[in-house]
Structure formats: structure tokens, C-alpha cells
Amino acid sequence: MINNKIYMDYAATTPVDQEVLEVMLNEYSSEVFFDRQSSKYIKIQMDRTKYRLMDAINAKSGDVIFTASGTEANNLAIREHANRGRHRWKRLLVSGIEHPSVLNVFTALETEGFEVVKLPVSPAGIIDLEAAKKLVTNDTILVAVMFFNNA
After folding, report:
1. CATH 1.10.1090.10 is right for the domain spanning 70-144
2. What does the angle CA 59 – CA 65 – CA 70 come to, to the nearest 5 degrees?
3. Which residue from 108, 121, 114, 104 is spatially nearest to 139, judged by alpha carbons?
4. Are 117 and 142 contacting, i.e. CB atoms less than 8 angstroms apart?
5. Cβ distance 81 to 142 under 8 Å?
6. Per-residue pLDDT of the chain in tens (151 residues, 90 and over written 9)
7. Rounded CA gap, 92 and 142, in Å?
8. Are 135 and 119 in contact (CB under 8 A)?
9. What are the backbone dihedrals phi and psi of residue 32, each rounded to the nearest 5 degrees, phi first?
10. What pTM was estimated for this model as a whole?
């Protein structure tokens, strides 16, 4: 709740958690006297954040990658996974109701020689699981389906 009102648009943005806000305010205290815009400061803060996150989720060095946007993250994750299997498999499955940042990667991968198959989706946006199961073959590298669609 925000100001005694229920916030319903978490797909667009999310209120800052009080604990996160306290950490941010501490990091940006008035007692820090150096240029926050400098790339050195930003690198230090990113590294600190990365190591805190790695420690919190028990991750190794290469397990955490920061990206500038959701589109970049989608592109990186999908391409990395597809390219790891490209020498053995070529089939990629994706629902037709994915975000454009996902669908565009699959379109590009199709021009690069991958077989892209669209999963059948009902008018209500629900994937036909039985049909989807039949589309998965031994050559399938990746199945991409969004968990929630805010449209």
C-alpha cells in the first residue's frame, strides 16, 4: 500500500522497498565527498552491489551479469542459451504473445539458421500445454514463455 491506497501497476514500476531505500540513502549520505558521476565511483558501487548479490544467492563470479535494460537482459539470456546449443540443436519454441524484446531476438535467430516455432496460444493468452508438449523434440534448445502478461 502507498499512502493507504492499493498500488496495482507493478508491471510498469514498483514502489521502493523501505529496506532498499534505507540502503540507498545510506550510500548517498552527505558525508560522501567525491564525484558520484565518475566512472570510478560507479564501477566501485556496481562491484559492491554485485558481490553483495552474489553472496546473498550463493553465486559464483560469472553467474551475475548487470544489463542496462530488460531488453538487453532478454537478448543476452536468449542468445547465450541458443548459441550454447547451436552446434547440436536448432529448434527454439516461443509463444506469440511474448514481449517484443523477446520476439525480436527469436526473429533474428531465425534469420541466423535456427528453427523458430510459435507455441499455440488461446485468445485469452493461455498456452495449449498438450500442443506445446508435442512441439518439443530432441532438437529443442529453448522454450520461452512469459509467466505474466500485463496487456
Report:
1. no
2. 125
3. 114
4. no
5. yes
6. 455 666 666 666 777 888 888 877 776 665 655 565 667 777 887 888 888 888 999 988 778 888 888 899 999 999 999 998 888 889 999 998 898 999 999 999 999 999 999 998 888 888 888 999 999 999 999 999 987 766 5
7. 5
8. yes
9. -95, 115
10. 0.68
What values do phi and psi take at 118, rounded to 5?
Answer: -85, 130
User: How is the chain split into domains, by residue range?
Assistant: 34-66, 70-144
> Which of 111, 59, 104, 97 is closest to 78 using CA atoms?
104
Beta-ladder partners of 104: none
What's the CA gap between 77 and 99, in Å, rounded? 14
Give the residue ranges of DSSP H helices in the chain: 18-27, 39-57, 70-85, 100-111, 129-135
Amino acid sitting at position 32: V
Print burial letters for 54-86: b (CB count within 10 Å at least 16), e (below 16). Answer: eeeeeeeeeeeeeeeeeeeebbebbeeebeebe
The residue assigned the cell 559492491 is: 48
